[in-house]
């Protein structure tokens, strides 16, 4: 055969996978909406945080001035001005006059405490007048003052002195420990829930977002009819895996960009707006400051810091990667198979619901059952079942492995089951994919999908 | 002559439905082989098997004397009927990608693409996105991608659909060109007229079965009925016509211009036309004497009808 060009010994690359991965990656990364999402998301997210912090700051600066019109002999000295609320005491007026003057001066509201025989009766008949529906914070404050006084009174009747009452108002928190003597702080358990839940949630989001990308990419290849051209050069399985890997690499790129840019933006925003990040968890600060009776605040913080170091990060991240990879591969190959089975995105709904179901179940079971009882039958069951284990097991793992944590046999079984499922599902999905990409026309039923597996 | 491709009793079923039933074909090297049949006959399934997109349930395919294996993909170029390109990808990037999937190095692919883009005068498309191209333009790109790696066997499934007549001619010339350079070509179509001028060999596939194959010229010879188309100038047309009727099997006739011009069809028992010609040249001026050869279309229809009648 006389060739146009010098005979070229075509090297048949045994593995065309890198080529496919590269194309899928670039196609995704260069996609306009992907770029926009990558840039916009951190800005939106940081914007939200800054807005919330900023509003919280403004809100803090607002001072409520409340008129107090007290006709009784109770609660005389209880309404003392605080940084956020000032009380102005009105005397020698009628209620109507008091109301009018409040409106005239433009105060926030008027607290009316009528005459009465007992403190209870007085409290019952007290009234708060306000221009609009009052701010919940303001009414809460008022209610607390009443409640506190009433409680004090009743306790005094029972023989508890004011000093004694003050001493029992101290905040209390139980200290916990494992049998091995490891100190466990409640904050730490919360932290573990946040870490485990965060990892699980991340996996779910990643699967839903990027699995969807894989699916749409398969549909695009079908509708643009390039599929048969490609498939005469590469095996459908290679194309499917290349697509899944390329898309997830684009996803990981996006996640990394999000995390880095969000951190930088957040830092800049706080500098620029002069917002103290701690204003976001003011509640916690307040609680700490309000209880001078609790001497070990610093100690607690130190212990938390200690515990953060003690959390087996390396183990957690290792297992996160294992569960993430296997879980993502399982789900995204199902997504690829769905994409291959249909001709357009609207037909996918019926097939997507059954995939999202186990994911949602895993998240809900995780939050409502696993954290309360990490070693109960439900937690164990769902952390073994392969379609939920990537999420549920990660929620259990911050508790450690072995004694006091996840038993090793459970971990091994869970990973083995996941690997077996992975092989099985990818095999099935590849079969459906192989037939589906070359089948046009009507949306197949589950029965037909089952038939395709046997072709 | 060597066969570039042989299919041996290839059968493919999709569930209950038989898409290919015992198809045996021999496709000679350096020829254009027409794979004909109506839509849904099973042509595309057969081509997919040759391209190892699907696999036969029974039977085997030999490529260049060897059982078909994945390595052969680099020696086959396939232009599918259902063809397309990535819409949002640039033309240049896309052709490079597809060429590399066929086993060409990036460097080699670029060199060859330059040649083809110049040849088709489409150099300025390189940075365009596919969605900016017209259908015919995209078809040209697909054609280039199919032939770029200079495979031994080229498979074109309905190559002319989507082309305007001018571009269809350009592509037809390129196909002949490739054949002359030594490539073997399978040309699948349901449009018979394009078969006549291109194909040396044909196979007819109908309802999943092969009903006819061989050299087109042989088939035509086989299907011809020894009918001769005769145009004469005579003085007495009426008299000649009567003589013809008694001596030969006259099928039809009509005379023009006051009996001086006569056209008729005569069927002979064999292909030997000497007796008829001698008789005619003795009696009249023979203006036209042609044996009627059936068109591929006629052969196709006749075969299908006779097959349906047998069932």
Number of domains of chain A: 2
The CATH class of the largest domain in chain B: Alpha Beta
Quick one: how many beta strands of chain A? 6
Largest sheet of chain B: 6 strands, mixed
Beta content of chain A:
5-15%
* Low-confidence blocks of residues of chain B: none
The CATH topology of the largest domain in chain B comes to Rossmann fold
As a percent range, the share of strand residues of chain B is: 25-35%
Superfamily (CATH H level) name of the largest domain in chain B: P-loop containing nucleotide triphosphate hydrolases
* Biggest interface: A-B, 35 and 42 residues
Contiguous helical run count of chain B? 10
Q: Kindly name the structural category of chain B.
A: alpha/beta
The helix content of chain A is: 55-70%
Strand order of the largest sheet of chain B: 6-7-8-3-9-10
Characterise the protein shown here.
The complex is a heterodimer of chains A (455) and B (311). The longest helix of chain A has 38 residues, at 186-223. The model of chain A is unreliable at 279-295 (pLDDT under 50). Chain A starts with 16 loop residues before the first helix and ends with a helix. Chain A has 2 domains: 17-42 and 183-454, no CATH class; 65-168, Periplasmic binding protein-like II (D-Maltodextrin-Binding Protein, domain 2, 3-Layer(aba) Sandwich). Chain A has helices at 17-30, 32-61, 95-105, 119-125, 136-157, 162-168, 186-223, 227-231, 236-273, 282-290, 297-310, 313-341, 349-370, 377-384, 389-396, 408-436, 446-454; strands at 64-70, 85-90, 109-113, 127-130, 176-177, 183-184. Chain A is elongated. In chain A, the strands form 2 sheets. Chain A has a 4-stranded mixed beta sheet. Chain A is mainly α. Chain A contains 17 helices and 6 strands. Chain B is α/β, with parallel strands linked by helices and 311 residues long. Chain B has 2 domains: 3-221, Rossmann fold (3-Layer(aba) Sandwich); 225-291, Alpha-Beta Plaits. Chain B is built from 10 helices and 14 strands. A 6-stranded mixed beta sheet of chain B has the order 6-7-8-3-9-10, with helices on both faces. The mean pLDDT of chain B is 86. Chains A and B meet through helix 1 and helix 8 of A and helix 2 and helix 3 of B.
